[in-house]
Amino acid sequence: MAAAAGPPGATFELTEASRRQQEEQEKLLRDFELRRRIRSTVVPTDDGKVRAMLRALGEPITLFGEREMERRERLRKLLAEREAAGEGAIDGAPLIGQVVVEEVEMQRELFYTEGEEALLKARKAIAEWSLPRAAQRIAAQKQQMADLQGLQALDAARKASESAARRLAQISSEIGDDRPIQGVQFSPDGSTVATCGWGGSVALRTADGSCKRVWAFRAAAERLTSLAWHPHAQPTLHLSQQQQQQQQQTSAAAADSMDGQEGPAAAANGSETVALATGCADSTAALWTEGGKLLRKLTGHTERLARVAFHPMGHHLATASFDTTWRLWDVESGACLMEQEGHSRQVYAVAFHPDGSLAGSAGLDAYGRIWDCRTGRCVFTLAGHVKQILALDFAPDGWHVATGGDDHTVKIWDLRKRKCTYTIPAHTSLVSTVRWQPGSGHVLLTAGYDCAAKLWSSRDWKLLKVLAGHEGKIMSADMCPVFSGGGSGGGRGSGGCGLGGGYEALVASVSYDRTIKVWAPEEGAAAAAAEDEGGDDSSGDDDEDMDD
């Protein structure tokens, strides 16, 4: 039976449920329209103009804990609400949908900050030191490329280095500290490996399968962020007393023959010789002897330090800081020679060219910069990473640079072509370390927060080996710099692996899990199996190119 209809023209009141539903629908429409207006409202990007417009609206220019982007969004919402309410626009406010073009005065002229006489003296010394070495390197490369036997020897050394990388296996794992270990680096002669961590301690260990701790000292009350060996340091604590005396005599004779041209640490490693530098979260760097005696403390940065690096000449130290600058220090006096700006955010990594002519810096602004140490100019900007850059290293050939960042990639830059020539999809998390194989550059070592270190061929950027074993993110890794048959011997435990002209493939890695692990090439049947497995990995892990 149908319900009776009312008289024509009669109106009926909505039920309470229908009224609430209608109000909710109207509110949704208003919110949708407001969001549309907010999206189409354009506000200035200059924070000063944003604050001025908020003041004109009678609103607080900033709220507690509010950042620039949040302040812009608040202004955008206020303007959209005023437009929806039919209120007039304030002076200087953009209209809905209007494109705002801000006039920015571009400074196209180079400007210089007057430096001290000590900086001029340092630049001259660097130029005199680096130019002959650059000439020697280029002449040797040309001679090798023009000689068939030289090319064959180069190819054989490269194959030997890649073979050693494929045969790497873990030979040691030790608890290195009570807190996560932040940095690791082999000494220049490959005999000792140094580590530093969040506990503020520095530990020296033998660079062999035992990884025996030979010395440790407390360097800071706060966490250490990095360490670096002096390029002429010659550790002796791992030697017997007789070997130490022989080492000192040899070093003293070498120092006399060099007539002091190689820097303050070129002589024997006496008690007052700079051997190590550390960077600390308390914004200071420090110079230490091998035995842990503090020689100089470098103060001047206003925020925590990240990486530190010695100039290959040995006279200067570079420190990268979260105060958006990196500084150049005189090792002998501890004076700050230069405070270099150029990054818009924190500077995390710093490194020097093998010739000493260039310095590289990388920061959390996703840019790297190459600086001419002889003039102070920025000669190349490394633009390509989409997130912050955390690692940078120069190749021994002098014209390749590797950078690693929070975008999980490693980029290879050609300084001659002034562009990125290859992008390696290296890790599944941020890249904490990039390190070229010392001396030859045949292999590139990378490590990341995905708990793995990897080795890549610099010939075609194929994956050679994955070093897995850490239970936490890898904070740092390094490769042994000892030339096979030189330095400290020739056996695996003493630093040489007999590659016939190649370089030692010994690798050390430190992690958030508080361990230090050492990796060395296997021998015999296990080596053949690793070689086959490494060959399979290198052919299938990098199928899709990411050339830039």
Automatic annotation (TrEMBL):
Region (Disordered): 1-21, 236-269, 523-548
Chain intervals with Acidic residues compositional bias: 530-548
Signal peptide: none
Superkingdom: Eukaryota
SUPFAM superfamilies to which the protein is assigned, alphabetical: PRP4-like (SSF158230), WD40 repeat-like (SSF50978)
WD-type repeats, residues: 298-339, 340-381, 382-423, 424-466
PROSITE patterns tied to this protein: WD_REPEATS_1, WD_REPEATS_2, WD_REPEATS_REGION
Gene3D superfamilies: Pre-mRNA processing factor 4 domain, YVTN repeat-like/Quinoprotein amine dehydrogenase
Keywords attached to this entry: Repeat, WD repeat
Residue intervals of the Pre-mRNA processing factor 4 (PRP4)-like domain: 45-95
InterPro entries: PRP4-like (IPR014906), PRP4-like_sf (IPR036285), WD40/YVTN_repeat-like_dom_sf (IPR015943), WD40_PAC1 (IPR020472), WD40_repeat_CS (IPR019775), WD40_repeat_dom_sf (IPR036322), WD40_rpt (IPR001680)
This protein's name: Pre-mRNA processing factor 4 (PRP4)-like domain-containing protein
Protein's organism: Tetradesmus obliquus
